[in-house]
Amino acid sequence: MSSQVVLITGALTGIGRATAHAFAAEGARIVVSGRRDEAGKALADELRAAGAEAEYIHADVRHEDDVRALVDKTVARFGRLDVAVNNAGTEGQPGPVTEQSADSYAATFDTNVLGVLLSLKHELRVMQAQGHGSIVNISSVVGKIGVPGASVYTASKHAVEGLTKSAALEAVASGVRVNAIAPGPIETGMLNRFTGNEENKAGLLASVPAGRAGSVEEVAQAILFLASDKSPFLTGQSLAVDGGRTAA
After folding, report:
1. Residue ranges of the domains in the chain?
2. Going by DSSP bridges, is the β-strand pair 176-183/54-58 parallel, antiparallel, or unpaired?
3. Cα–Cα distances in Å, from 145 out to 140, 141, 154, 155?
4. Which CATH number is 5-247's, of 3.40.50.10490, 3.40.50.2000, 3.40.50.720, 3.40.50.2300?
5. Distance, CA of 91 to chain centre
6. Alpha-carbon gap, residue 165 to 170, rounded angstroms
7. Which of 185, 245, 179, 193 lies closest to 219 in space, CA to CA?
8. How much is the pLDDT for 100?
9. Which of 17, 57, 35 is nearest to 190 (CA)?
10. What is the distance between the alpha carbons of residues 10 and 61, in angstroms, rounded to a whole number?
11. Which residue blocks in the chain are alpha helix, DSSP H?
């Protein structure tokens, strides 16, 4: 894994940030991407201080020109692209179906679905030509089971699950694997925004058999596994990292 070139979208906070540090600890060369330049440059500095070769590249995954340039700049900097983690996402506007609108739908789907589609398109453009690569999309357990009050977010993660399977089937013959990680409740800013208060958060966590929220580091380790040569026969799969929630 020490020679892997890794691209992470939505890398500046939460799961993306933890994943960047986890790959750095394994000696990977890393490109982190996001929309907040000051935070992105600071993260790249942190990774370099930890001994990794790292770059920050500004990109908004909702815009194809940004995504194309992100992938091309990664290859120009490091010569290839071995791993891509498509983590950029938003919880959108929580609330029942009756409170949703075309605007709330677009705001969620443009990032969570279009962003993954555009990322897959340009990552596969490079990886299929190379004849190797591993892509990990970040989905959610709500894409498997549904959650009241998160209708549009749930629908967007169903879409990520479908994109993952379709892309995996299209890419497998060229030596590229495409999988997904479906986190359950993870201790992040997104979880806190979605639940709104400690009482709601405690109620949600009560549905997790493990009895707690997961950590971003636990999700990052699952991503490293899917991206590694320890999982060469895994493609088109969605791995739930959820403390048993989907099994209950």
Report:
1. 5-247
2. unpaired
3. 9, 6, 9, 11
4. 3.40.50.720
5. 13
6. 9
7. 185
8. 95
9. 17
10. 9
11. 14-25, 37-49, 64-78, 102-109, 115-130, 142-145, 151-171, 189-195, 198-205, 216-227
DSSP 8-class letter at 211: S
Could you list the active site residues?
153
- What per-residue confidence (pLDDT) applies to 245? 92
Structure tokens at 5: 């070139």
Provide the Cα torsion 16, 20, 23, 29; round to 10°: 130
From 186, 90, 43, select the one nearest 57 (Cα to Cα). Answer: 43
Q: Which parts of the chain sit beneath pLDDT 50?
A: 1-2
Say what the pLDDT of residue 149 is: 85
Q: How far apart are CA 151 and CA 160, in angstroms?
A: 14
Structure-token pair, residue 228:
């590694």
Q: Which of 107, 139, 94 is nearest to 246 (CA)?
A: 139
Residue 159 to residues 40, 112, 116, 234, Cα–Cα distance (Å): 28, 9, 10, 20
